[in-house]
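In this section we walk through a basic example: taking a raw amino acid sequence and producing a predicted 3D structure, encoded as C-alpha cells. The instruction is simple. Fold the sequence below.
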Amino acid sequence: MLNGLISIGAIALALIYGTPGNVDVLSFDVSLEFTFYSVSLCVDPVILVWTDRNIPGAAMTFGNTIVAERWLEESPKRDWVLRYEECHVRQCQGLGWLMWPVSLFVEMDPGRHSTGMTIDYSAPEQAEEALWMPPEWMDSWHWIRLELRFG
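The resulting C-alpha cell sequence is shown next.
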C-alpha cells in the first residue's frame, strides 16, 4: 500500500514539473520473478523531467522520478548529478517507503556530508561512491508490480 503511494507520488511529481517534450526515460528495466506460488512482472523506469523551476541542489528524486533544472542539461555537471540522482532511485527501490524513516537514522549520503568529499564532475562514477547503496538482494519497491498467484 505505502509503496504504491511512492509510484503515485512519482507520477504526480512528473506531472507537476513536466510539460510535453521535457520528459526523458533514462532507463527502463523489466523483470520476471518466480516463486513456488507466484509469478511477478516488475517494471522499473527511471524518468527524468527537465524544469525551469528552481530546485534545491539543481535536482531532486522521488521514487523513480528525477526532476532537474533545465540549465543542467548543457552543463558539464550533468552526468555526475544525474548519476547521483539515479543512486537515490536505487536507494528507494531497495528500501521502498522505509527510505524516509531509515534516513533519520542512517546517513544516506555519507561521502559528501561527513567527509567533505571533493566532487570531480568529470567522473560520474564517483557519485556512486558518495552514497550509501542498498545491497543487490534488497528489493522492496517497483514502480509497477503485477503478480499472478497460484493456489
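Looking at the output, two observations stand out. The CA atoms of residues 83 and 125 lie 7 Å apart. Residues 2-149 form one domain. In the next section we compare this with other chains.
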